[in-house]
Amino acid sequence: MEPAGGMAHEERTLMDETEPTVMRSARRGPGPSPADIADDADRRADAYGQGDREEVAVVDGYGARIAVERGHLELHDGVGGHRRVRRYTKLDAPRRLVVGIGTVGAVTFDALRWCSATGTSVVALGRDGGILAAGPPGREDARLLRAQALALYTSTGVDICRYLITEKLGGQARVLRFVFGEDDAANTVIDLRDSVDGATSIDEIRQLEAAAANVYFAAWERKATVRFVQADVPRIPDYWAKFNGRRSAVNPGSPRSATNPAGAILNYAYKLAEIEAALAARRMGLDPGIGILHADVAGRPSFACDLMEAVRPVVDAHVLGVLAGPLRKREFTEDARGVVHCMAPITHRLAEAMPSYGQAVGPTVETVASMLADSSPYDVSVPSVLTGAKHRAAARKRADTGKSPPRADHGRGPNPTGLPPRRKPRPKVKDPPPLPTVGCSQCGEVLPVDPDRTRARRNWCDDCLPSRRAETIPDAQRLSLEAARSFELATGTRPTHTTEATEARSAANARQRAEQLAWASMDAGVTLSREWWVAEIFPRLSTVTLPAMARATGASTSAASKWRAGRTVPHQRHWEALAGLAGVELPES
Protein backbone atom coordinates (compact mmCIF):
# COMPACT_ATOMS: atom_id res chain seq x y z
CA MET A 1 0.00 0.00 0.00
CA GLU A 2 1.69 3.16 -1.22
CA PRO A 3 0.97 6.21 0.98
CA ALA A 4 -0.50 9.26 -0.67
CA GLY A 5 2.16 11.56 -1.98
CA GLY A 6 4.85 8.97 -1.27
CA MET A 7 6.30 8.90 -4.77
CA ALA A 8 6.55 12.68 -4.98
CA HIS A 9 8.25 12.80 -1.60
CA GLU A 10 10.69 10.10 -2.66
CA GLU A 11 11.47 11.88 -5.91
CA ARG A 12 12.19 15.10 -4.07
CA THR A 13 14.50 13.25 -1.71
CA LEU A 14 16.39 11.57 -4.54
CA MET A 15 16.70 14.88 -6.35
CA ASP A 16 18.07 16.52 -3.21
CA GLU A 17 20.64 13.75 -2.80
CA THR A 18 21.80 13.93 -6.42
CA GLU A 19 21.81 17.74 -6.65
CA PRO A 20 25.34 19.17 -6.52
CA THR A 21 26.43 20.52 -3.16
CA VAL A 22 27.20 23.98 -4.56
CA MET A 23 23.69 24.38 -6.02
CA ARG A 24 22.10 23.24 -2.76
CA SER A 25 24.22 25.64 -0.76
CA ALA A 26 23.28 28.56 -3.04
CA ARG A 27 19.61 27.70 -2.86
CA ARG A 28 19.36 26.83 0.84
CA GLY A 29 22.05 29.00 2.34
CA PRO A 30 25.08 27.79 4.33
CA GLY A 31 25.28 24.02 4.33
CA PRO A 32 26.22 21.71 7.19
CA SER A 33 29.76 21.59 8.48
CA PRO A 34 32.09 18.70 7.56
CA ALA A 35 31.72 17.35 11.09
CA ASP A 36 27.91 17.29 10.72
CA ILE A 37 28.19 15.50 7.37
CA ALA A 38 30.53 12.89 8.85
CA ASP A 39 28.23 12.45 11.85
CA ASP A 40 25.22 11.90 9.61
CA ALA A 41 27.10 9.28 7.59
CA ASP A 42 28.13 7.50 10.78
CA ARG A 43 24.55 7.65 12.07
CA ARG A 44 23.21 6.00 8.93
CA ALA A 45 25.90 3.32 9.06
CA ASP A 46 25.04 2.57 12.70
CA ALA A 47 21.29 2.59 12.11
CA TYR A 48 21.20 0.40 9.01
CA GLY A 49 24.18 -1.86 9.61
CA GLN A 50 23.49 -5.57 9.27
CA GLY A 51 22.97 -6.66 12.88
CA ASP A 52 21.46 -9.57 14.76
CA ARG A 53 17.74 -10.13 14.54
CA GLU A 54 15.74 -8.67 17.40
CA GLU A 55 12.28 -9.28 18.81
CA VAL A 56 11.35 -5.86 17.41
CA ALA A 57 12.05 -5.15 13.74
CA VAL A 58 12.11 -1.43 12.88
CA VAL A 59 11.62 -0.29 9.30
CA ASP A 60 12.25 3.35 8.38
CA GLY A 61 13.90 5.56 5.80
CA TYR A 62 13.07 6.01 2.10
CA GLY A 63 12.10 3.36 -0.41
CA ALA A 64 11.11 0.94 2.36
CA ARG A 65 9.40 -2.28 1.33
CA ILE A 66 7.71 -5.00 3.39
CA ALA A 67 6.85 -8.06 1.31
CA VAL A 68 6.80 -11.86 1.30
CA GLU A 69 9.30 -13.65 -0.93
CA ARG A 70 9.32 -17.47 -1.11
CA GLY A 71 7.61 -17.77 2.25
CA HIS A 72 9.98 -15.35 4.01
CA LEU A 73 9.12 -11.89 5.29
CA GLU A 74 11.57 -9.47 3.69
CA LEU A 75 12.20 -6.02 5.13
CA HIS A 76 13.97 -3.46 2.91
CA ASP A 77 14.81 -0.06 4.40
CA GLY A 78 17.56 2.53 4.70
CA VAL A 79 18.59 5.93 3.36
CA GLY A 80 20.74 6.61 0.31
CA GLY A 81 23.59 4.15 -0.03
CA HIS A 82 23.01 2.73 3.44
CA ARG A 83 20.49 -0.04 2.79
CA ARG A 84 19.71 -3.30 4.51
CA VAL A 85 17.60 -6.37 3.82
CA ARG A 86 16.36 -8.66 6.60
CA ARG A 87 14.58 -11.99 6.14
CA TYR A 88 12.45 -13.81 8.70
CA THR A 89 10.88 -17.25 8.63
CA LYS A 90 7.64 -18.13 10.40
CA LEU A 91 9.66 -19.88 13.10
CA ASP A 92 11.68 -16.81 14.07
CA ALA A 93 9.12 -14.11 13.31
CA PRO A 94 9.55 -10.85 15.24
CA ARG A 95 7.01 -10.02 17.92
CA ARG A 96 6.67 -6.41 16.72
CA LEU A 97 7.13 -4.80 13.31
CA VAL A 98 7.43 -1.03 13.77
CA VAL A 99 7.26 1.32 10.78
CA GLY A 100 9.02 4.52 11.85
CA ILE A 101 7.77 8.08 11.63
CA GLY A 102 8.08 9.61 8.15
CA THR A 103 8.88 6.30 6.43
CA VAL A 104 8.22 6.30 2.67
CA GLY A 105 7.61 2.97 0.98
CA ALA A 106 5.11 0.15 0.52
CA VAL A 107 3.75 -2.90 2.33
CA THR A 108 2.00 -5.76 0.52
CA PHE A 109 -1.19 -7.52 1.55
CA ASP A 110 0.73 -10.80 1.60
CA ALA A 111 3.01 -9.32 4.25
CA LEU A 112 0.02 -8.28 6.38
CA ARG A 113 -1.44 -11.79 6.12
CA TRP A 114 1.95 -13.28 6.99
CA CYS A 115 2.21 -11.09 10.10
CA SER A 116 -1.36 -11.85 11.15
CA ALA A 117 -0.76 -15.60 10.84
CA THR A 118 2.45 -15.50 12.90
CA GLY A 119 1.09 -13.13 15.57
CA THR A 120 3.40 -10.28 14.64
CA SER A 121 1.88 -6.91 15.50
CA VAL A 122 2.44 -4.34 12.75
CA VAL A 123 2.62 -0.80 14.11
CA ALA A 124 2.86 2.23 11.83
CA LEU A 125 3.88 5.47 13.50
CA GLY A 126 2.31 8.24 11.44
CA ARG A 127 2.71 11.94 11.94
CA ASP A 128 -0.92 12.03 13.10
CA GLY A 129 -0.36 9.26 15.66
CA GLY A 130 -2.26 6.65 13.65
CA ILE A 131 -1.65 2.97 14.45
CA LEU A 132 -2.05 0.03 12.06
CA ALA A 133 -2.29 -3.34 13.83
CA ALA A 134 -2.34 -6.48 11.65
CA GLY A 135 -2.27 -9.03 14.44
CA PRO A 136 -2.96 -10.67 16.68
CA PRO A 137 -6.70 -10.13 16.18
CA GLY A 138 -8.77 -8.69 19.01
CA ARG A 139 -11.90 -10.01 20.69
CA GLU A 140 -15.40 -8.75 20.01
CA ASP A 141 -17.62 -8.51 23.11
CA ALA A 142 -20.35 -5.87 23.05
CA ARG A 143 -21.13 -6.48 26.75
CA LEU A 144 -17.60 -5.47 27.75
CA LEU A 145 -17.62 -2.44 25.44
CA ARG A 146 -20.92 -1.25 26.90
CA ALA A 147 -19.51 -1.55 30.43
CA GLN A 148 -16.44 0.42 29.35
CA ALA A 149 -18.55 3.22 27.85
CA LEU A 150 -20.71 3.52 30.99
CA ALA A 151 -17.84 3.30 33.50
CA LEU A 152 -17.21 7.06 33.36
CA TYR A 153 -20.65 7.71 34.89
CA THR A 154 -20.57 5.03 37.62
CA SER A 155 -18.45 4.14 40.63
CA THR A 156 -16.59 1.62 38.48
CA GLY A 157 -14.80 4.45 36.69
CA VAL A 158 -13.62 5.89 40.02
CA ASP A 159 -12.40 2.44 41.12
CA ILE A 160 -10.48 1.96 37.88
CA CYS A 161 -8.86 5.42 38.08
CA ARG A 162 -8.00 4.81 41.73
CA TYR A 163 -6.34 1.49 40.83
CA LEU A 164 -4.35 2.93 37.91
CA ILE A 165 -3.06 6.00 39.77
CA THR A 166 -2.23 3.96 42.88
CA GLU A 167 -0.06 1.67 40.77
CA LYS A 168 1.55 4.66 39.06
CA LEU A 169 2.41 6.54 42.26
CA GLY A 170 3.77 3.38 43.85
CA GLY A 171 6.11 2.90 40.90
CA GLN A 172 7.17 6.56 40.97
CA ALA A 173 8.00 6.25 44.67
CA ARG A 174 10.23 3.26 43.90
CA VAL A 175 12.06 5.22 41.19
CA LEU A 176 12.58 8.14 43.57
CA ARG A 177 13.86 5.95 46.38
CA PHE A 178 15.99 3.35 44.59
CA VAL A 179 17.16 5.24 41.48
CA PHE A 180 17.47 8.84 42.69
CA GLY A 181 17.92 8.23 46.43
CA GLU A 182 15.23 10.85 47.16
CA ASP A 183 13.65 9.41 50.32
CA ASP A 184 11.77 12.60 51.26
CA ALA A 185 10.23 12.93 47.80
CA ALA A 186 9.37 9.21 47.81
CA ASN A 187 7.58 9.56 51.17
CA THR A 188 5.61 12.52 49.83
CA VAL A 189 4.48 10.52 46.80
CA ILE A 190 3.51 7.59 49.05
CA ASP A 191 1.38 9.95 51.19
CA LEU A 192 -0.36 11.16 48.03
CA ARG A 193 -0.88 7.54 46.96
CA ASP A 194 -2.55 6.80 50.28
CA SER A 195 -4.78 9.84 49.73
CA VAL A 196 -5.88 8.41 46.37
CA ASP A 197 -7.40 5.43 48.21
CA GLY A 198 -9.85 7.78 49.88
CA ALA A 199 -10.69 9.85 46.79
CA THR A 200 -14.35 9.82 45.81
CA SER A 201 -14.24 11.41 42.34
CA ILE A 202 -12.12 11.29 39.23
CA ASP A 203 -11.35 15.03 39.47
CA GLU A 204 -9.93 14.54 42.97
CA ILE A 205 -7.76 11.68 41.71
CA ARG A 206 -6.46 13.90 38.89
CA GLN A 207 -5.49 16.63 41.37
CA LEU A 208 -3.57 14.19 43.56
CA GLU A 209 -1.83 12.78 40.50
CA ALA A 210 -0.81 16.30 39.37
CA ALA A 211 0.62 17.07 42.82
CA ALA A 212 2.66 13.86 42.74
CA ALA A 213 3.88 14.65 39.22
CA ASN A 214 5.25 18.02 40.41
CA VAL A 215 7.25 16.29 43.16
CA TYR A 216 8.37 13.48 40.87
CA PHE A 217 9.65 15.54 37.95
CA ALA A 218 11.22 18.10 40.27
CA ALA A 219 13.45 15.23 41.40
CA TRP A 220 14.15 14.45 37.73
CA GLU A 221 15.40 18.01 37.24
CA ARG A 222 17.71 17.63 40.24
CA LYS A 223 18.96 14.08 39.71
CA ALA A 224 18.49 12.98 36.09
CA THR A 225 21.76 12.94 34.18
CA VAL A 226 22.09 13.29 30.40
CA ARG A 227 25.52 12.15 29.28
CA PHE A 228 26.94 12.78 25.82
CA VAL A 229 30.28 11.52 24.58
CA GLN A 230 33.07 13.93 25.45
CA ALA A 231 33.80 14.60 21.77
CA ASP A 232 30.24 15.94 21.26
CA VAL A 233 29.99 18.06 24.42
CA PRO A 234 31.52 21.22 22.82
CA ARG A 235 29.10 20.91 19.87
CA ILE A 236 25.78 20.70 21.73
CA PRO A 237 23.77 23.48 23.41
CA ASP A 238 24.05 23.72 27.18
CA TYR A 239 20.38 22.94 27.74
CA TRP A 240 20.74 19.61 25.93
CA ALA A 241 22.86 18.24 28.79
CA LYS A 242 20.09 18.32 31.40
CA PHE A 243 16.41 17.57 31.95
CA ASN A 244 14.44 20.82 31.89
CA GLY A 245 11.09 19.50 33.07
CA ARG A 246 8.12 17.95 31.33
CA ARG A 247 6.68 21.23 30.04
CA SER A 248 7.71 22.35 26.58
CA ALA A 249 9.15 25.81 26.06
CA VAL A 250 7.62 25.92 22.57
CA ASN A 251 4.20 24.57 23.55
CA PRO A 252 3.61 25.85 27.12
CA GLY A 253 1.30 23.81 29.31
CA SER A 254 1.98 20.56 27.43
CA PRO A 255 4.82 18.00 27.39
CA ARG A 256 4.59 17.72 23.60
CA SER A 257 7.19 19.38 21.37
CA ALA A 258 10.15 18.65 23.63
CA THR A 259 13.02 21.12 23.45
CA ASN A 260 15.78 18.87 24.83
CA PRO A 261 16.91 15.29 24.13
CA ALA A 262 15.73 13.97 27.50
CA GLY A 263 12.18 15.14 26.85
CA ALA A 264 12.27 13.83 23.27
CA ILE A 265 13.37 10.37 24.44
CA LEU A 266 10.71 10.34 27.16
CA ASN A 267 7.96 11.33 24.71
CA TYR A 268 9.04 8.68 22.20
CA ALA A 269 9.16 5.95 24.86
CA TYR A 270 5.73 6.97 26.18
CA LYS A 271 4.35 6.70 22.64
CA LEU A 272 5.67 3.15 22.36
CA ALA A 273 4.11 2.24 25.71
CA GLU A 274 0.82 3.77 24.55
CA ILE A 275 0.91 1.55 21.45
CA GLU A 276 1.47 -1.54 23.60
CA ALA A 277 -1.47 -0.54 25.81
CA ALA A 278 -3.69 -0.08 22.72
CA LEU A 279 -2.72 -3.51 21.35
CA ALA A 280 -3.38 -5.14 24.72
CA ALA A 281 -6.78 -3.43 24.97
CA ARG A 282 -7.80 -4.74 21.55
CA ARG A 283 -6.79 -8.28 22.51
CA MET A 284 -9.02 -8.07 25.60
CA GLY A 285 -11.99 -6.81 23.59
CA LEU A 286 -11.78 -3.22 24.82
CA ASP A 287 -11.81 -0.01 22.79
CA PRO A 288 -8.54 1.99 23.05
CA GLY A 289 -10.39 5.26 22.39
CA ILE A 290 -13.16 5.30 25.06
CA GLY A 291 -11.27 6.83 27.97
CA ILE A 292 -12.15 7.19 31.63
CA LEU A 293 -9.30 9.11 33.26
CA HIS A 294 -8.36 10.98 30.05
CA ALA A 295 -10.94 13.08 28.24
CA ASP A 296 -12.19 11.98 24.84
CA VAL A 297 -10.19 13.68 22.08
CA ALA A 298 -10.42 13.04 18.36
CA GLY A 299 -7.51 10.96 17.12
CA ARG A 300 -6.21 10.01 20.58
CA PRO A 301 -6.53 6.54 22.18
CA SER A 302 -7.67 7.92 25.52
CA PHE A 303 -8.27 4.51 27.13
CA ALA A 304 -4.79 3.37 26.09
CA CYS A 305 -3.43 6.49 27.81
CA ASP A 306 -5.41 5.46 30.92
CA LEU A 307 -3.88 1.99 30.94
CA MET A 308 -0.41 3.35 30.29
CA GLU A 309 -0.46 5.36 33.53
CA ALA A 310 0.26 2.26 35.61
CA VAL A 311 3.43 1.40 33.65
CA ARG A 312 4.89 4.88 33.22
CA PRO A 313 7.45 4.22 36.02
CA VAL A 314 8.67 1.16 34.08
CA VAL A 315 9.23 3.39 31.04
CA ASP A 316 10.90 6.03 33.22
CA ALA A 317 13.41 3.53 34.62
CA HIS A 318 14.31 2.38 31.11
CA VAL A 319 14.67 5.96 29.86
CA LEU A 320 16.98 6.82 32.75
CA GLY A 321 19.22 3.97 31.64
CA VAL A 322 19.25 5.41 28.12
CA LEU A 323 20.01 8.93 29.34
CA ALA A 324 23.00 7.60 31.30
CA GLY A 325 24.39 7.07 27.81
CA PRO A 326 26.62 8.22 26.52
CA LEU A 327 24.42 9.71 23.80
CA ARG A 328 25.56 11.06 20.44
CA LYS A 329 24.68 14.43 18.94
CA ARG A 330 23.89 12.81 15.60
CA GLU A 331 20.98 10.87 17.19
CA PHE A 332 18.92 14.07 17.57
CA THR A 333 17.80 16.89 15.32
CA GLU A 334 16.41 20.32 16.16
CA ASP A 335 14.01 22.15 13.87
CA ALA A 336 13.62 25.88 13.34
CA ARG A 337 11.28 26.24 16.34
CA GLY A 338 13.72 24.52 18.69
CA VAL A 339 11.79 21.24 18.91
CA VAL A 340 14.13 18.24 19.33
CA HIS A 341 13.34 14.93 17.62
CA CYS A 342 14.94 11.50 18.07
CA MET A 343 16.58 9.87 15.06
CA ALA A 344 17.91 6.42 14.24
CA PRO A 345 19.65 4.50 15.73
CA ILE A 346 18.36 5.62 19.14
CA THR A 347 14.77 5.15 17.93
CA HIS A 348 15.63 1.53 17.14
CA ARG A 349 17.08 1.02 20.61
CA LEU A 350 13.97 2.48 22.23
CA ALA A 351 11.69 0.28 20.14
CA GLU A 352 13.51 -2.83 21.36
CA ALA A 353 11.91 -2.30 24.78
CA MET A 354 8.33 -2.63 23.44
CA PRO A 355 7.97 -6.32 24.48
CA SER A 356 8.99 -5.32 28.01
CA TYR A 357 6.34 -2.59 28.05
CA GLY A 358 3.74 -5.06 26.77
CA GLN A 359 4.69 -7.56 29.45
CA ALA A 360 4.35 -4.88 32.14
CA VAL A 361 0.98 -3.56 30.95
CA GLY A 362 -0.60 -7.02 30.53
CA PRO A 363 -1.65 -7.56 34.20
CA THR A 364 -3.02 -4.01 34.36
CA VAL A 365 -5.23 -4.48 31.29
CA GLU A 366 -6.58 -7.80 32.54
CA THR A 367 -7.36 -6.31 35.97
CA VAL A 368 -9.23 -3.37 34.42
CA ALA A 369 -11.14 -5.73 32.11
CA SER A 370 -12.17 -7.84 35.10
CA MET A 371 -13.41 -4.73 36.93
CA LEU A 372 -15.49 -3.76 33.90
CA ALA A 373 -16.84 -7.31 33.56
CA ASP A 374 -17.92 -7.33 37.22
CA SER A 375 -19.84 -4.08 36.70
CA SER A 376 -21.78 -5.48 33.75
CA PRO A 377 -25.30 -6.86 34.35
CA TYR A 378 -24.38 -9.73 32.01
CA ASP A 379 -22.29 -12.76 32.88
CA VAL A 380 -19.05 -11.71 31.18
CA SER A 381 -16.00 -13.96 31.31
CA VAL A 382 -12.63 -12.29 30.78
CA PRO A 383 -9.81 -14.55 29.51
CA SER A 384 -6.19 -14.11 30.56
CA VAL A 385 -4.78 -13.95 27.04
CA LEU A 386 -2.06 -11.47 28.04
CA THR A 387 -0.58 -13.08 31.15
CA GLY A 388 -1.89 -16.67 30.99
CA ALA A 389 -2.74 -16.47 34.70
CA LYS A 390 -5.87 -18.65 34.38
CA HIS A 391 -3.98 -21.30 32.45
CA ARG A 392 -1.28 -21.49 35.10
CA ALA A 393 -3.85 -21.59 37.89
CA ALA A 394 -5.63 -24.49 36.18
CA ALA A 395 -2.32 -26.32 35.71
CA ARG A 396 -1.47 -25.87 39.40
CA LYS A 397 -4.91 -27.15 40.39
CA ARG A 398 -4.48 -30.27 38.26
CA ALA A 399 -1.02 -30.82 39.76
CA ASP A 400 -2.35 -30.44 43.32
CA THR A 401 -5.29 -32.84 42.79
CA GLY A 402 -3.27 -35.30 40.73
CA LYS A 403 -5.90 -35.39 38.01
CA SER A 404 -5.07 -35.14 34.34
CA PRO A 405 -7.20 -32.97 32.07
CA PRO A 406 -10.21 -34.75 30.55
CA ARG A 407 -9.61 -36.18 27.12
CA ALA A 408 -11.88 -34.89 24.40
CA ASP A 409 -13.93 -37.61 22.72
CA HIS A 410 -15.19 -36.71 19.29
CA GLY A 411 -16.44 -40.22 18.47
CA ARG A 412 -16.84 -40.78 14.78
CA GLY A 413 -16.23 -37.18 13.86
CA PRO A 414 -13.89 -35.61 11.35
CA ASN A 415 -10.94 -37.47 12.90
CA PRO A 416 -11.11 -41.23 12.28
CA THR A 417 -9.44 -42.06 15.63
CA GLY A 418 -11.64 -39.74 17.69
CA LEU A 419 -8.65 -37.66 18.88
CA PRO A 420 -8.90 -33.88 19.10
CA PRO A 421 -7.21 -31.96 16.28
CA ARG A 422 -3.57 -31.03 16.79
CA ARG A 423 -3.05 -27.39 17.61
CA LYS A 424 -0.27 -25.15 16.46
CA PRO A 425 2.45 -25.03 19.15
CA ARG A 426 2.81 -21.72 20.87
CA PRO A 427 6.07 -19.88 20.25
CA LYS A 428 8.38 -19.57 23.22
CA VAL A 429 8.29 -16.18 24.89
CA LYS A 430 11.73 -14.63 24.76
CA ASP A 431 13.25 -12.72 27.62
CA PRO A 432 12.71 -8.95 27.62
CA PRO A 433 15.54 -7.07 25.91
CA PRO A 434 18.26 -5.71 28.20
CA LEU A 435 19.01 -2.06 28.66
CA PRO A 436 20.99 -0.36 25.89
CA THR A 437 24.69 -1.08 25.76
CA VAL A 438 27.05 1.37 27.42
CA GLY A 439 29.56 3.24 25.28
CA CYS A 440 32.79 4.99 26.18
CA SER A 441 32.19 8.48 27.56
CA GLN A 442 34.94 9.90 25.35
CA CYS A 443 34.73 8.14 21.98
CA GLY A 444 31.43 6.24 22.18
CA GLU A 445 32.95 2.78 21.56
CA VAL A 446 30.75 -0.02 22.92
CA LEU A 447 32.25 -1.41 26.13
CA PRO A 448 32.46 -5.18 26.79
CA VAL A 449 30.10 -6.74 29.34
CA ASP A 450 31.19 -9.59 31.62
CA PRO A 451 29.10 -12.79 31.43
CA ASP A 452 27.90 -12.39 35.03
CA ARG A 453 26.71 -8.80 34.58
CA THR A 454 24.11 -6.93 32.53
CA ARG A 455 26.09 -3.70 32.09
CA ALA A 456 29.72 -2.77 31.61
CA ARG A 457 31.81 -2.29 34.75
CA ARG A 458 33.28 1.05 33.64
CA ASN A 459 32.46 3.97 31.37
CA TRP A 460 35.81 4.38 29.58
CA CYS A 461 37.50 2.18 26.98
CA ASP A 462 41.12 1.02 27.20
CA ASP A 463 42.33 3.78 24.85
CA CYS A 464 40.63 6.64 26.71
CA LEU A 465 41.12 5.35 30.28
CA PRO A 466 44.77 6.53 30.68
CA SER A 467 43.91 10.12 29.79
CA ARG A 468 40.88 9.99 32.08
CA ARG A 469 43.02 8.76 34.97
CA ALA A 470 45.58 11.48 34.30
CA GLU A 471 42.79 14.08 34.64
CA THR A 472 41.08 12.71 37.75
CA ILE A 473 43.73 10.98 39.89
CA PRO A 474 45.68 14.18 40.85
CA ASP A 475 42.48 15.73 42.25
CA ALA A 476 40.99 12.56 43.75
CA GLN A 477 42.79 12.79 47.10
CA ARG A 478 42.01 16.49 47.51
CA LEU A 479 38.33 16.02 46.69
CA SER A 480 38.12 13.06 49.05
CA LEU A 481 39.59 15.05 51.94
CA GLU A 482 37.22 17.96 51.24
CA ALA A 483 34.22 15.63 51.24
CA ALA A 484 35.40 14.06 54.51
CA ARG A 485 35.79 17.50 56.15
CA SER A 486 32.33 18.57 55.00
CA PHE A 487 30.82 15.37 56.39
CA GLU A 488 32.64 15.82 59.72
CA LEU A 489 31.45 19.42 60.05
CA ALA A 490 27.87 18.42 59.31
CA THR A 491 27.67 15.31 61.52
CA GLY A 492 30.43 15.75 64.11
CA THR A 493 32.14 12.48 63.18
CA ARG A 494 34.41 11.20 60.43
CA PRO A 495 32.95 9.09 57.59
CA THR A 496 35.12 6.15 58.66
CA HIS A 497 33.98 6.35 62.30
CA THR A 498 30.21 6.26 61.92
CA THR A 499 28.24 3.46 63.55
CA GLU A 500 27.54 1.77 60.23
CA ALA A 501 31.18 1.95 59.12
CA THR A 502 32.43 0.60 62.47
CA GLU A 503 30.00 -2.30 62.43
CA ALA A 504 30.86 -3.18 58.84
CA ARG A 505 34.59 -3.03 59.60
CA SER A 506 34.21 -5.24 62.67
CA ALA A 507 32.18 -7.81 60.73
CA ALA A 508 34.75 -7.86 57.91
CA ASN A 509 37.64 -8.29 60.34
CA ALA A 510 35.86 -11.13 62.15
CA ARG A 511 35.14 -12.84 58.86
CA GLN A 512 38.77 -12.55 57.76
CA ARG A 513 40.05 -13.96 61.09
CA ALA A 514 37.67 -16.90 60.79
CA GLU A 515 38.84 -17.60 57.24
CA GLN A 516 42.48 -17.40 58.31
CA LEU A 517 41.93 -19.84 61.20
CA ALA A 518 40.05 -22.23 58.92
CA TRP A 519 42.87 -22.09 56.38
CA ALA A 520 45.55 -22.60 59.05
CA SER A 521 43.77 -25.74 60.33
CA MET A 522 43.84 -27.34 56.88
CA ASP A 523 46.72 -29.51 55.70
CA ALA A 524 47.51 -28.07 52.27
CA GLY A 525 50.41 -30.47 51.66
CA VAL A 526 52.36 -27.67 49.92
CA THR A 527 54.69 -25.14 51.57
CA LEU A 528 54.61 -21.76 49.84
CA SER A 529 57.14 -19.03 50.56
CA ARG A 530 57.10 -15.29 50.07
CA GLU A 531 59.96 -15.63 47.59
CA TRP A 532 57.79 -17.94 45.45
CA TRP A 533 55.00 -15.34 45.46
CA VAL A 534 57.36 -12.55 44.44
CA ALA A 535 59.06 -14.60 41.72
CA GLU A 536 56.15 -16.52 40.19
CA ILE A 537 52.76 -14.89 40.78
CA PHE A 538 53.31 -11.16 41.33
CA PRO A 539 54.89 -10.41 37.90
CA ARG A 540 51.97 -12.11 36.11
CA LEU A 541 49.17 -10.25 37.91
CA SER A 542 49.59 -7.23 35.63
CA THR A 543 47.45 -9.00 32.99
CA VAL A 544 44.67 -9.95 35.44
CA THR A 545 41.76 -7.55 35.94
CA LEU A 546 40.83 -6.32 39.39
CA PRO A 547 37.21 -7.62 39.20
CA ALA A 548 38.51 -11.09 38.33
CA MET A 549 40.85 -11.03 41.34
CA ALA A 550 38.04 -9.83 43.60
CA ARG A 551 35.66 -12.57 42.41
CA ALA A 552 38.28 -15.31 42.84
CA THR A 553 39.33 -14.31 46.36
CA GLY A 554 36.23 -12.63 47.80
CA ALA A 555 38.25 -9.48 48.55
CA SER A 556 37.50 -5.96 47.38
CA THR A 557 38.86 -4.43 44.20
CA SER A 558 40.73 -1.91 46.37
CA ALA A 559 42.64 -4.75 48.08
CA ALA A 560 43.25 -6.40 44.71
CA SER A 561 44.67 -3.13 43.38
CA LYS A 562 47.18 -3.01 46.24
CA TRP A 563 48.21 -6.62 45.56
CA ARG A 564 48.71 -6.01 41.86
CA ALA A 565 50.70 -2.82 42.51
CA GLY A 566 52.95 -4.59 45.05
CA ARG A 567 51.99 -2.34 47.97
CA THR A 568 50.74 -5.32 50.01
CA VAL A 569 51.00 -9.09 49.88
CA PRO A 570 47.76 -11.09 50.16
CA HIS A 571 47.28 -13.78 52.78
CA GLN A 572 48.49 -17.20 51.74
CA ARG A 573 44.92 -18.53 51.57
CA HIS A 574 44.45 -16.41 48.42
CA TRP A 575 47.63 -17.51 46.66
CA GLU A 576 46.16 -20.63 45.10
CA ALA A 577 43.24 -18.69 43.52
CA LEU A 578 45.56 -15.95 42.27
CA ALA A 579 47.97 -18.52 40.87
CA GLY A 580 45.12 -20.00 38.85
CA LEU A 581 44.31 -16.57 37.41
CA ALA A 582 47.96 -15.93 36.58
CA GLY A 583 48.39 -19.35 34.96
CA VAL A 584 50.95 -20.58 37.50
CA GLU A 585 50.93 -24.15 38.80
CA LEU A 586 51.50 -24.81 42.50
CA PRO A 587 54.80 -26.49 43.36
CA GLU A 588 54.68 -30.14 44.26
CA SER A 589 54.80 -31.08 47.93
Helix vs. strand class: alpha/beta
Give the CATH architecture of the largest domain. Up-down Bundle
Widest sheet, order of strands: 4-3-2-6
Cα-to-Cα separation, first versus last residue = 79 Å
Overall geometric form: globular
**How much helical structure, as a percent, in the residues?**
40-55%
CATH homolog superfamily of the largest domain: CRISPR-associated endonuclease Cas1, C-terminal domain
Look at the structure and give the mean pLDDT.
Answer: 80
What fraction of the residues are assigned to beta strands by DSSP?
Answer: 5-15%
Report the count of strand segments: 9
- The total domain count is 3
Major sheet, described briefly?
Answer: 4 strands, mixed
CATH structural fold name of the largest domain: Four Helix Bundle (Hemerythrin (Met), subunit A)
Low-confidence stretches: 1-29, 408-424
- CATH class of the largest domain reads Mainly Alpha
Structural Rg: 30 Å
Give, in order, the helices and strands.
Answer: HHHEEEEEEHEHHHHHHHEEHHHHHHHHH
How large is the count of helical segments? 20
Describe the structure.
This protein has 20 helices and nine strands. The protein is globular and about 85 Å long. It has three domains: 119 residues, Ribosomal Protein L15, Chain: K, domain 2; 232 residues, Four Helix Bundle (Hemerythrin (Met), subunit A), CATH 1.20.120; 62 residues, 434 Repressor (Amino-terminal Domain) (Orthogonal Bundle), CATH 1.10.260. The protein is an alpha/beta fold and 589 residues long. It has a four-stranded mixed sheet, with helices on both faces. The N terminus is likely disordered. Helix 9 crosses helix 10, helix 9 packs across helix 13 and helix 18 packs across helix 19. The protein starts with 5 loop residues before the first helix and ends in a 7-residue tail after the last helix.
